[in-house]
Amino acid sequence: MAKGFTDEDDALLEELGVEVETKKESSRTPREERVIAGFEEIQRFVEQRSRAPQHGEDRDIFERLYAVRLDRLREQADCRNLLAPLDHHGILAGAESAPTGIGDELDDDELLAQLGVDSEPTDITDLRHVRSAAEKRAAEEIANRQQCGDFNKFKPLFEQVQKELNAGLRQTRRFERKSEIAPGRFYILGGQKAYVATMEQPTPNEHGNIDARLRVIFDNGTESNLLMRSLQKALQQDPGGRRIVEPSAGPLFADQNEEGEEASGIVYVLRSKSDHPAVAAHRDVLHKIGVTGGDVARRLANAKLDPTFLMADVEVVATYELFNINRARLENLIHRIFGAARLDIEIKDRFGQPVIPREWFLVPLFVVDEAIEKIRDGTITGYTYDPKTASLTRAVSEDFR
User: Which InterPro entries has this protein been placed in (predicted)?
Assistant: First the structure.
């Protein structure tokens, strides 16, 4: 009899052609239901990856969980008997063992804790606090510090920075993902001031991203040799992570002009959409850097008809508003700094006449950003761009300021 219906109700429903379904009570225990549900998740993984889940820190957190769970199911006879009719892929036979330190008695929550999950998830597919192997390595790099043998050389730098902070000459700003790490800059990490003393030549890492080994000095007299991206990640994840900006040098590149002043122009950085082989091969680092006193969009309206813009459309990737400045001198200064990376290319104009554009440079955007900051704070003197290291370097070596 269907639950909630009388015999008369059932008979009436049958006469009307409505099938009466009787809800069957499950004969499985709650534990057996959980075992089956967990095994079905493993089966979905096998169907998607065409292999059984495997152990290892380089594996996805879910795969590692499935691998340990599968080991447990294989080792328990009652689980094998229960799941045998459902094992369409034959994954209950054979396999590697769970790594040392992960015991059979752990439940999923304890297992997640050992695998790097900081708090209890509501569901195995809802992991909000999982630390990847890369994140754990970054944290270990930051924590692995040693005494700085020549700290007496850096101590005056920290003292001077603190004086400038106290006097309001420097400010701290939240470290953002777009912020770049560079030698000579100060940051705040874990409540301590950190100074990037040196940076080795940047090279692509295993994921194709540019990375570099740093020597970072902390104001407590310790130092650490860590990767640039490890420091970036630590600063982003630290609620108090900050960057200490350079002293202001007046309204040259102020965020807004003083009362009564008029904006003098905008430094713009463009990226070309040209399909010219020399452009397409270096599109991500090829930029046009110019200065205009008018509207940038209007300046670019006819880019595809102008050889200055490589006879192609462009996109604006950065702009910097400036005040009360000589635009021609500023543009000459920028082009001098990046002169060694100027693009050597000849473009035909609409009439077939050859033109050699002079404002395109093979320079990463973060270096342009750094140059603008150094122009803003007045420290650009003596700097030029070195294409070999993809960084700004001093033409003449100087002692620490």
Answer: Phage_T5_Orf172_DNA-bd
Q: How many Å apart are CA 136 and CA 151, to the nearest integer? A: 28
The structure's pTM equals: 0.37
pLDDT(133) > 50: yes
Residue 267 structure tokens: 């430094």
Token pair for residue 50? 């065409």
Task: Give kind and range of the element (H or E) at residue 73.
Answer: helix 61-75
- Number of CB atoms found within 10 A of residue 236's CB: 13
Distance CA 61, CA 52 (A): 14
Helix, strand or coil for residue 382? Answer: coil
Mean pLDDT of 153-170: 81
Tell the residue number behind the tokens 């700097």, with chain if given. Answer: 383
- Cα 316 to Cα 269: distance, rounded to the nearest angstrom: 6
Burial class (CB in 10 A: 0-12, 13-18, 19+), 337: buried
**Looking at the DSSP assignment, which residues form a beta bridge with residue 270?**
288, 316
Instruction: Give the Cα separation of 367 and 335 in Å (integer).
Output: 13
* SS3 (DSSP) at 71: helix
